[in-house]
Amino acid sequence: MAKLKIAKYWADGCGGCDVSLLDTDAKILEVAAIADIVFWPIAVDGKYSDLEAAKPGEIDITFFNGAIHTAEHEHIAQLMREKSKIMVAYGSCACMGGIPSLANTTDRESIFETVYHLAPSNDNPRGVEPQTRTKVPEGVLSLPMLYERVKRLDECVEVDYYLPGCPPFYKRVADVIDVIASGKLPPKGSVVGAKDKALCEECPRERHEKKVKEFKRPQFAQDDGKTCLLEQGIVCVGVATRGGCEARCINANMPCRGCYGLLPEAMDQGASALSAVASIIDSNDPKEIEKVVNQIADPLGTFYRFGLPQQRVRI
Amino acid sequence: MAKITKKPDKEKIGVFLCHCGTNIAGVVDIPALAGYTRDLPGVEMVDEYKFMCSQPGQDLIKDSIKKHKLTKVIVAACSPLMHENTFRKACEEAGLNRYCFIMVNNREHNSWVTEDKALALQKAKDLIRGAVARAFWLEPLEVKEVGVNPNVLILGGGIAGIQAALDLAESGRTVYLVEREQSIGGNMAKFDKTFPTLDCAACILTPKMVSVGQHPNIKLWNYAEVDEVSGFVGNFKVKVRHKATSVNFEKCTGCGICQEKCPVKRPSEFDEGLGNRKAIYTLFAQAVPNKPVIDRVNCTYYIKGKCKVCEKFCEPKAIDFEMKDSVEEIEVGSIILATGFHLWEAGQMPELGMGKYPNVLTSLQFERMSNSSGPTLGKILLKDGREPESVAILHCTGSRDVNYHEYCSRVCCMYALKFAHLIKEKTKAHVYNFYIDMRCFGKGYEEFYHRLLEENVTFIRGKAASVTDRAENESESGKLIVMGEDTLSQKLLRLPVDMVILTNAIEPQLDAQEVARKFKISCAGGGFFLEKHPKLAPVATASDGVFIAGACQSPKDIPDTVAQGQAAASAVFALTQRGKVELEATTAIVDEELCSGCEICLSLCPYQAISHNAEKKISAINDALCKGCGTCAAACPSKAIFARHYTNQQILAELEGVLNERI
Ligand SMILES: Cc1cc2nc3c(=O)[nH]c(=O)nc-3n(C[C@H](O)[C@H](O)[C@H](O)COP(=O)(O)OP(=O)(O)OC[C@H]3O[C@@H](n4cnc5c(N)ncnc54)[C@H](O)[C@@H]3O)c2cc1C
Questions:
Q1: Is residue A191 situated within a structural domain?
Q2: What is the predicted pLDDT for the residue at B331?
Q3: Which residues in chain B are closer than 8 Å to A240, comparing Cβ atoms?
Q4: Does residue B251 share a domain with residue B371?
Q5: Into how many domains does chain B fold?
Q6: What ipTM describes this predicted complex?
């Protein structure tokens, strides 16, 4: 078999996804054995011009991580789509918007206001803001435009596979590499490297009937180390999140944040988690329920931490 | 059974538009609607008729199913509550599964709520489009039948339970009547007279109690409670706990010597604390069964280890200090809950002086005082033994009051009149009634009110605000002063009287929620048991085979209570006579491939139909217990539970159909 040509790109994201591929340890050598990396800005030398020069479909697989937040991200996404046979949304940001998409709770103007004017670390006496085009004596400088809304990769280009996780768990990345090596690809549109069941299935903690009278943030809770966190009043969205990560956060005594995303039959991860959490409040008194609900800090960020652009009801 | 995951493309849908006389056709342009419907995808034929529910209407549906080989049927008519079953049956008779039918409510949801014909037509189109879109996703469901055990459990031996027990026993059913107190009789047994006829309560109640005690088909289990209920309509298993009475009922002859000799005196609950009882006691002289029980908390033997006076005097050797609670499991096909009410103590209204002034009485205390076998032998007396010269009866104590109970307790106006009459009859006292409105709704009630108006009783329209003993002048000294407003003359009022009688609100039993949970029924807003339908199914509940009767359903008088007791008995009779029940097929089901075992659903099921399968580590739903309410399906964060006949796809398709002109 001829060696596969693979590419990787980092759009709006933290870079953890790039590291996760390296986290596969020796597996990365297998990758090298079956594939040539033709474009991966963080790891191998390469220019956009190389990409532009490639023939359509010349790249076998692109692993695209990060959400789409600027004109540059979108441009490269389209370019890579054109040049690649298979487009994989790699990591939570590409799959469903991820942490950067929490920016969708506000708008560009407010973001600029905060970042360039209000942030206490700023020293910006002239009140400068980035411009897409700036004339300087030497000519015109350009910057990509920041979009009003953060988008998922599949809102810009067609995506063949989704590999969720923030970042994807290295063992699941290794599994996916095995599948690619075997040549037996699942049907297009599949979520790969994740389970169809919720995280609870692989969670090591003990579970019982759930009745909660108080919600606590993890740092204020006395975790007993063995009982379901949700039962202990710590909001854990594992109930509404695909498994596959082997409960890595729970094993570090932290609740699931939901990075593996929506379950196959669910329509909205945040709504699913919310209705589950609402269901276990142990009270029939509206006032008490309101009090308990208000103990949940940052509900939007908690229930839609990774999937704001994926929710049914748009804000 | 697998869930449909792909929209089937070949469907033959028949749509039938009912005129309902002019009810629908007078507002909705039926020919225009028919024309529109004909062009919707999947619609094979459309027809209309004056009354779809009539025999010719039903025949039209049946013939069309056969002629056009319809796979789905939609009837746009009235509310499904009215005729869903009618049309389901018609479909089934023509060989189409009843769940392949959808009813569109074109009357209550449309023609009855608007006069705007253009909008009505638009809405009818939208609703039908939704139904057509949903019809594609409907699947036939299998209806199962189970047999019905003819035995009946009745919980609570007040007049409601007594009446139901007698009716059913007469019909040949075996009845287990479980009463937690020493005797049956309930609250009615405490009364002297009953409004509006003033019959003596005991004279009409005790013959029924005796019949219960003697009936060969009634197993009267007094001093017993239900621990656990499992199973479902027709096939319940009930664990009944016989509380240790410390008296062997087989041996006891009911001679009463033990009660006479027992040295312990306790305030009698039956006498509402006005009189005393012994540690070994029957509730009252005519108790059924007339065999005493020992109150172990207060019996000297159980406290100090010695006494046994009762044992010494008991000739038949019936006292058994070592007796233990025993649990018996019975199988019954239906259950009637007749657990009655609890009288609100009014402790939360300290301004009325309950518990503070000895001459402020609750209504039941007055009933006991007025009862000739009660603590004062029927004499109306103040604490110091004098006869009162004046008595105030305060209406609506904690009823019709947003701070306590919003509802009307329904019997207080009437027993207040009864009290006024009895006081007039037995003393020379003047009687004042502080009322908001007089509610004398029943047969002969208004007449009773008029009778009292002529008995020289004073009616003051206004709620009493407070009762105090702080006299402001000579005429008030040594009296209780009722303060309030006479809203008719718009004057503030201070009225000195000797005795105040409250009309305490009627509340659900304190353990009503717990009992409801045990029997898998719900409680309504005020905490009373919730009936299946307030008008059309007043004694049925959401739990098939479990019926309710009497004051446990809402405050009510004896005539209504007895009527409900008989209604519940007849419902049980019909059920057991049929011998078989169909189980609702629209139950929820767990997709084992998707359930992660998070256990969110476990505590949510109001019918306790969900359990955890420890082996597979997932949830399991018992089909026979599930009522298809959908709570678990909505809460399941994996959407691993789906409700048959209300799957996400079905609901979304319908929504999309309603909202989207192009389906
Ligand atoms: C002061 C007063 C005066 C009234 N006067 C009149 C009148 O003159 N005329 C009239 O028509 N109506 C009158 N009423 C209304 C009347 O009391 C009720 O209509 C009637 O008592 C209702 O009967 P019931 O069988 O539903 O309930 P109840 O009489 O309350 O009987 C319920 C029975 O169930 C038993 N029970 C409860 N829970 C359980 C359990 N978990 N397990 C086993 N057993 C249980 C109780 O011990 C009790 O024996 C009066 C009410 C009051 C408060």
A1: no
A2: 97
A3: 637-638
A4: no
A5: 4
A6: 0.88
A–B: how many Cβ contacts below 8 A? 76
Q: Which of B155, B222, B339 to mutate to test the pocket of ligand 1 (most atoms within 8 A of CB)?
A: B339
Q: Which pLDDT score is estimated for A1? A: 59
- Please tell me the predicted confidence (pLDDT) of residue B7: 64
Q: How far is the CA of B331 from the centre of ligand 1 (A)?
A: 27
Give the CATH number for residue B637: 3.30.70.20
Note whether residue B125 is domain-resident: yes
Tell me: do B564 and B596 sit in the same domain. Answer: no
Are A167 and A60 members of one domain?
A: yes
B431 Cα–ligand 1 center, Å: 26
With bands split at pLDDT 50, 70 and 90, how would you rate the model's confidence at B2? very low
* Residues A142 and A164 occupy one common structural domain: no
**Does one domain contain both A154 and A143?**
no
- Is the CB of B225 inside a 6 Å radius of any atom of ligand 1? yes
Atom of ligand 1 nearest to the CA of B503: 1
Say what the pLDDT of residue B392 is. 98
Q: What pLDDT digit, counting tens, does each position of A272-281 carry?
A: 999 999 999 9
Among the residue ranges B109-113, B122-126, B172-176, B584-588, the one predicted with the least confidence is B584-588
Question: Is position B503 within any domain?
Answer: yes
The share of chain B scoring above pLDDT 70, in percent, equals 99
The answer on A304 and A211 residing in a single domain is yes
E strand or H helix at B397, and its extent?
Answer: strand B390-397
| B382-418 tens-digit pLDDT | 999 999 999 999 999 999 999 999 999 999 999 999 9
Domain range enclosing A250: 199-310
Q: Are residues A13 and A153 in the same domain?
A: yes
Same domain, A158 and A10: yes
Provide the residue range defining the domain that includes B437. Answer: 344-507
Comparing alpha-carbon positions, the chain A residue that sits nearest to B611 is A209
Is it the case that residue B9 has pLDDT exceeding 80? no
Q: Are A165 and A85 within one domain?
A: yes
Asked whether B224 lines ligand 1 (CB < 6 A), one says no
Asked if the structure places residue A192 within a domain, the reply is no
Shared domain for B73 and B159, answered yes or no, is: no
Cα B295 to Cα A296, B190, B385, B451, B452: the distances in Å are: 49, 20, 30, 44, 42
Domain match, B46 and B179 both: no
Which of B638, B642, B647, B648 to mutate to probe the A interface, most A CBs <10 Å?
A: B638
CA of A128 to the centre of ligand 1 (A): 81
DSSP letters for B196-249: TTTEEHHHHHHHHHHHHHH-TTEEEE-SEEEEEEEEETTEEEEEEEE---SB-T
Same domain, A14 and A143: no
Question: Within its chain, how far is the Cα of A42 from the centroid?
Answer: 19
- The reply to whether B2 falls in a domain is no
Residue B302 falls inside a structural domain = yes
Confidence of residue B324 (pLDDT cuts 50, 70, 90): very high
Distance A303 CA to ligand 1 centre (A): 50
Could you tell me if residue A187 is inside a domain?
no
Residue B633, SS3 per DSSP: helix
B246 with B362, same domain: the answer is: no
Q: Which residues of A touch B597 (CB under 8 A)?
A: 200-201, 207
Alpha helix segments (H runs only) across chain A: 16-22, 27-34, 48-53, 71-83, 92-96, 108-112, 170-182, 248-251, 269-279, 286-293, 299-303
Instruction: Decide: residue A26, CB within 10 A, 0-12 exposed, 13-18 middle, 19+ buried.
Output: exposed
- What CATH number is given to the structural domain containing B466? 3.50.50.60
Give strand ranges (E) for B255-349: 266-267, 276-277, 280-281, 293-294, 326-332, 334-337, 341-343
Q: Say which of B603, B638, B640 has its CB closest to residue A209.
A: B603
Q: Which residues contact B369 (CB under 8 A, 6 or more apart)?
A: B274, B361, B375, B376, B378, B379, B380, B381
Residue closest by Cα to atom 28 of ligand 1: B340
